[in-house]
Amino acid sequence: MTYQTEYKAWKDAPEAYWMKQAEAIDWVSPPSKALFDEGAPLYEWFADAQVNTCWNAVDRHANGARATQAAIIYDSPVTGQKTTITYAELRDRCALMGGALKRQGVEPGDRVIIYMPMVPEALVAMLACARIGAVHSVVFGGFAAHELAVRIDDATPKAIIAGSCGIEPGRTVEYKPLLDDAIEQAAHKPEFCVILQRSHCEATLIPGRDHEWYDFIEGAELVDCLPVSGNHPAYILYTSGTTGAPKGVVRHTAGHLVALNWTMKNVYGVDPGEVFWAASDVGWVVGHSYICYGPLIHGNTTVLFEGKPVGTPDAGTFWRVMSEHKVASFFTAPTAFRAVKQQDPKGDLVKNYDLSHLRYVYLAGERADPDTIHWLQDMLGKPVLDHWWQTETGYAIVCNPVGIEQLPVKVGSPTVPMPGYDVQILGEDGTPLPAGDLGAIAIKLPLPPGTLPTLWNAEERFIKSYLATFPGYYETGDAGYIDEDGYLYIMARTDDVINVAGHRLSTGAIEEALAGHPDVAECAVIGVADELKGQLPLGLLCLNAGVNRPEGEIIAECVKRVREQIGPVAAFKLATVVQRLPKTRSGKILRGIMVKIADDQPYKAPATIDDPAILAEIKEALQSMGYAGKA
Ligand code: COA
Ligand code: AMP
């Protein structure tokens, strides 16, 4: 089998192709057909099937040959804990938590927000929701109360499951005060909360609303998996868009099962029974697809790592975990390896570990810089494979499909489109561009199974954000080109989304937080290049007339505001005061040009610029912060 024949097999008969892949899933009642296109340009896959995600991810393995196989290896250098949970144990834990949620009134379709650190209970909570047909929405622990409140109001959960704290190197982050604050801020109030008390910090519970995890599950019935329809939402995951309001990406049950199962062998090259590790967080899509669902659906062992690439305790942690747990395929963001490389440039720590089980290393979430790829290749002598995807798609759009055929690596390209994805480069007027030309990266509709069918409670926004610019296509928000061999290159975002340490952030959301400062009249946030994190947000602030407080004080207050409203994950520490912002005559702030100035790249002011002299002022302000080349 070659990549070309596999891709052609899909292109010639897409529905037959996906019906074939669907045979790997245990259906309560199989789908009558693959694609449901009656609502085009909105599409659904396997909509009329009956199926359960927890059954496919847990019970079918636990009840069969994998009962005693490790489902989850929890390795937590921040607490010193290491535990293995077998498939049989995981089934019982999910059944008990599912029973407890049901006993407390959670019904199929009810939303449950999960705000937890990287502990096994986070996966149990997700799978327990799936077991009873509840729709989970996991919120990353690095988000502050305001961001959590926004998600509570959008998802309107019946319940929230949280940990008492997360452990960051050098500090404990108490989640419970953030949760209480978020519920206070939100208009919607959950009926109850379940709190996992961790030994590092005991949260104060609110009587009548909060239940301690173990009290909550005590005496509950072990529930069976509830069949749901193929288009039942498995989860909602919020991601950043251009505006401050996050987008609730919906994932339907059946397509999610079929697609993720397909990727484990074809994209990641692992067979059932092998150990797979994605070093990410359950709060991100990588955590959903490749810490929780993908490996479990496929019968792999997943590693749940509560730590950082460096400092827990050192830059050898990744190698230690890979070696100790015999990891076959490993996946993380390039920024994590940049951190390792910074601390151990010669790779002395790699040599301490036996990495003979490791076959492939995968990178995604942000641009993989060639230096990091070359360094890793040299250190490991194994394939280092970049792949490109988004929260919206849930799995790789473009990758090197080692399970089908390992293609030559071209450093700088995530390789080629997967079956299901007809990727095209479009010009501004929507015409497909020839090889080598830079344009908007778009995917011909319908998107394949497992990708987002819509946004939660926001169908119009879904259409406007993704389908309206290029009719018949999904607009990815990325720009790039395809070379003569069909390899894709991702060059930039076409919107104001930035990528900080592999985390996708909205400059609009940061601007909203800054604009709320009483002294700030107007502001713009741009992403400037950073050696470690890829990009860092930088704020340009115009103050109200008559404000004569020290600028440093106002900047410090702005930094604090972003940390309190969005969270530490925004890593917002850079800001400066400017007199004016560059705009077009119609008032649009020219963020793209400011990014180019900051990164000392060539730029051309658009003909529509209101006053080109402002660009020189911006350059001077950025130079005083160490950006925009030398003064
Ligand atoms: N809960 C609470 N706070 C969190 C958090 C969480 N789950 N995750 C991160 N934070 C905090 C950090 O403590 C840090 O706070 P600080 O400003 O007080 O130092 C801040 O958010 C920024 O975190 P991070 O971006 O992780 O930066 P860092 O400097 O702590 O670490 C790296 C840098 C490169 C080691 C780190 O970004 C990393 O491991 N990245 C991997 C990327 C990744 O997993 N991406 C997911 C997509 S694949
Ligand atoms: P997220 O939804 O958080 O996964 O972010 C998706 C975005 O991250 C993409 O639209 C790209 O802008 C960027 N991204 C993800 N993977 C890659 C990659 N391999 N190379 C370049 N950019 C990437």
UniProtKB/TrEMBL annotation:
Q: Name one GO molecular function term.
A: propionate-CoA ligase activity
All copies of the AMP-dependent synthetase/ligase domain together span 68-444
Looking up CDD domains in the UniProt record yields: PrpE (cd05967)
UniProt record similarity statement: Belongs to the ATP-dependent AMP-binding enzyme family.
Instruction: Quote the protein name from its UniProt record.
Output: Propionyl-CoA synthetase
Cellular compartments per GO CC: intracellular organelle lumen
* Domain spans labelled Acetyl-coenzyme A synthetase N-terminal: 3-57
Boundaries of every AMP-binding enzyme C-terminal domain copy? 510-588
> One short Pfam family name for this protein?
AMP-binding
